[in-house]
Amino acid sequence: MSLAQIIIESLESLNSNKLRSGLTILGIVIGVAAVIAMLAIGQGAQDTITGEISGIGTNLLFVFSGNNQANVRNVRPLTMSDAEALRDPFAAPSVENVAPVLQRNGVSVSSSAEQSNATVTGVTAAYETVRNYAVAEGNFITEEHNLGRASVVLLGPELAEKLFGRSQGLVGETVRIQGQPFRVIGVLQSRGGGAFGSEDNVAIIPISTARARIINRPGERVDVIFVQAVSADVVPQAAEEIAQILRTRHRTEVGLDDFTVLTQQDFLQVAASITGVFTTFLGGIAAISLLVGGIGIMNIMLVSVAERTREIGLRKALGARRRDILVQFLTESSLLSLIGGLVGIILGWLIAMAVGQFAAASGTPFDPSVSLSAVLLATVFSTAIGLFFGIYPANRAAALEPVEALRYE
Amino acid sequence: MTEPVIVAEGLTKVYKMGDVEVHALRGLSLTIDRGEIVAIVGPSGSGKSTLMNILGCLDLPTAGEYILDGERVSALKDDQLADIRNRKVGFVFQSFNLLSRQTALSNVELPLRYAGLTSGRKDRARQALTAVGLEDRMTHRPYELSGGQQQRVAIARALVNDPAIIMADEPTGNLDSKVGQEIMDLLLNLNKERGTTLIIVTHDPKVAAQTQRVIHIRDGVVDTETEA
After folding, report:
1. How is domain B34-58+81-227 classified at the CATH fold level?
2. Calpha distance A295→A321 (Å, rounded)
3. Where is the domain boundary, A233, A257, A281?
4. Could A402 and B118 be called an inter-chain contact, meaning their C-beta atoms sit closer than 8 Å?
5. Residue A310 in contact with partner chain B when CB distance is under 8 A
6. Which of A156, A374, B137, B218 is in the most buried spot, having the most CB atoms within 10 Å?
7. With contacts defined as CB-CB under 8 Å, which chain A residues touch B157?
8. pLDDT tens for each residue of B33-51
9. A367 alpha carbon, distance to own chain's centre
10. Are B166 and B5 a contacting pair, CB within 8 Å?
11. A318–B56: do the CB atoms touch at under 8 Å?
12. Do A138 and A252 share a domain, yes or no?
């Protein structure tokens, strides 16, 4: 018999018991839809996270005190003079700009009317270019502000909204940070949610003021030094130059750096491995439901073989060989799972889109992407499941003795 | 014409029912000539059904020799048996055994599909249905047909492949006597027109009386033969 003929006959046979076929297909639909949706959501999450990390800036490096990779005692903190040393154009030709930062989360900030908590960041003038901040109104922190420990502040738009109910016309207003008055000299442009939480709920003040009045750190310590490389290509050189300078200054032993230099690449790798695990985990759980769907197919095919024993006997009497019967039942089970797979792909895609819409509505830009490879994988895998779970029932049908089968009531 | 189409020598069939061995056939021998109309009769338990299964190549004898249309059937494997059934044997069953989801035409086409024919199947199936007088019922499904019409479809299916023999197992058993007689007339007519050998297994003496030779089976052997 030709394949087309077999497929038509199988469809007729599946059609003759619509409810049963439908429920069996549903098992596969749910499994495939779950796999597709989970992979799409995982991929979307990965895209979003890597996108945000890329948004940090491709030529940015982060220098922290301490080192997770080695067991280092007597960690020397990073200081203002470390930051100053990184600016040396001879020792660090790949470094464009350096911005040391003091930072504290959950600091009380209030206006005359409202009170809120925000991240207070003490910065130098270089921070604006290094972190690529833009000012919506007013001016950024200057060197003069730092030298004079001026009590001035730039507000993130979210914080401004909370304190004043608007984010415009605020220059000259006064806010209190931990009770101390600061004059507003500008409002930042919105940056949206970032890899390090919202970057709009911030108050930016001069680092010297921060050290003296808000964030007490012993000595000249800083929390993080942001370094801007000359270009994205020289980031690795910049990292090496920074490490050399700090090793000399901290007199560390070989292989025992007491600081960590991270690049955007490092963050991307970590994020990719985390979301990879996440996606595999979700996909694995979804695959279990696909397996359950496959068992459903096997169950229904066994019932079908038992019900159609006489028909099988008749077909054999009319000259059907083992192979003919085998192919017939395998085609039926594969069609069940293939139809389920195709419907499941569409349903999974819709679920992924719905999740994307939902995420977008709640303010997280998140775009689940159904990849071609996921679709192919689901199609091939679901058909393979139909074949695999169809083999046993089909074999049972094919092995029936014609005499016995014809006598079967 | 005295060329034999069926030669069976010392057919023995032993079934194992648990520990008990049941001897359904005990060295049965028989010869049937091409174009003959033969009735096989006998009480239940006589081995009649077993004989029919073996002559129809649905089953193999435990011992003995069976030659159908020049082929030594007793030496064949499963798939070869399927092929012999397809080409040389047409079955007509008491309960018709049509595929209920398919039209009369595609029911009749089925043996041709298993024969691997790719073209001309529809034409041959139409010819067979015309030969049994169902030219205006081709696209009906079994549940839209009367019992007699269903049996006609089954007969068309049996002869579509031009088999050497037609095995009819109680072909009139599920039909009233009038329709049953129509079916018998059709079978006899086909034998006359096409020369197809006809083997009818029956209880009904009226059916047996219309054949040329009646073979009585008892206790797994041929008891008596009566020629008309």
Report:
1. Rossmann fold (3.40.50)
2. 27
3. A257
4. no
5. yes
6. A156
7. 318
8. 999 999 999 988 888 889 9
9. 10
10. no
11. no
12. yes
